[in-house]
UniProtKB/TrEMBL annotation:
Any coiled-coil regions, as ranges: none
Pfam families membership: XdhC_C
Domain XdhC Rossmann as annotated: residue spans: 77-217
Segments crossing the lipid bilayer: none
Name the UniProt record assigns to this protein: XdhC family protein
Length: 233
């Protein structure tokens, strides 16, 4: 692989930006970052690869091409060290997600309750200065406390996180929307918040709600808009 291609891929990796290489089986490699304007005949195939993370051969009128995909490891950031978070912490690694929990309430955020979990007992706005959000981060706010949840939700929308979910009823969410609007968040951005959080599967227990949240996160990752990633790298 050419040095310039390797450098582009390394920069994308450092910026946690997805990339696809399109290799002509007779020689020659092109690289497209998520959000680039990819020309035909590879546009649809590149979009599928970016969503699925799967490599493969594409047959076109111009010949055969091999697509290789480089996706940043997706991660879940949970705001709130609650029972739902305990269940989600067990499920997320099975589905291939790194997971971090942030909660300033030291009575909840204890190593005893979250053994082996990346746990930060601090205010989210402070913790996120060292753990910046990005497009391959899913944020789930589950404390039900506006003083803790609202700022990371706003930050996740601003960072373009592929998933932003918040616990609470529709009435609770309507109140949340008003607070965020007063904080200057655009309506179009607030429309991206999944609330009530999780797929509607009738979940009742914390474990079932965790399953519903994880399923919704996977859906958001695999169906995300790969054409509007921008050019943060």
């Amino acid at each position: 692989m050419e040095q310039a291609i390797l450098e582009t891929l390394n920069l994308a990796r450092a910026a946690r930006r997805a990339a696809v290489t399109v290799s002509d089986l007779t020689g020659g490699v092109r690289v497209y970052l998520e959000g680039d304007d990819c020309p035909e005949p590879w546009r649809e195939a590149v979009a599928r690869a970016l969503r699925s993370g799967r490599a493969g051969i594409v047959e076109t009128g111009q010949g055969s091409f091999f697509l290789n995909v480089y996706l940043p490891p997706p991660r879940i950031l949970v705001i709130g060290a609650v029972h739902i978070s305990q269940a989600l912490a067990q499920l997320a690694p099975v589905a291939g997600f790194d997971m971090t929990i942030i909660d300033p309430r030291t009575a909840f955020a204890t190593p005893e309750r979250f053994a082996g979990v990346d746990l930060i007992a601090d205010w989210p706005e402070d913790a996120l200065k060292l753990r910046p959000l990005d497009r391959f981060t899913a944020l789930a706010a589950v404390t039900h406390d506006p003083k803790i949840d609202d700022e990371p939700i706003r930050a996740a929308l601003s960072a373009g996180c592929f998933y932003v979910g918040a616990l609470g009823s529709r009435k609770t969410h309507a109140t949340r929307i008003e607070r965020l609007r007063h904080a200057g968040v655009a309506d179009a951005d607030m429309a991206r918040i999944r609330a009530p959080i999780g797929l509607d599967i009738g979940a009742a227990s914390p474990a079932e709600i965790a399953v519903a949240i994880l399923a919704e996160i996977i859906e958001a990752l695999r169906r995300r808009d790969v054409a509007s990633a921008g050019s943060e790298a």
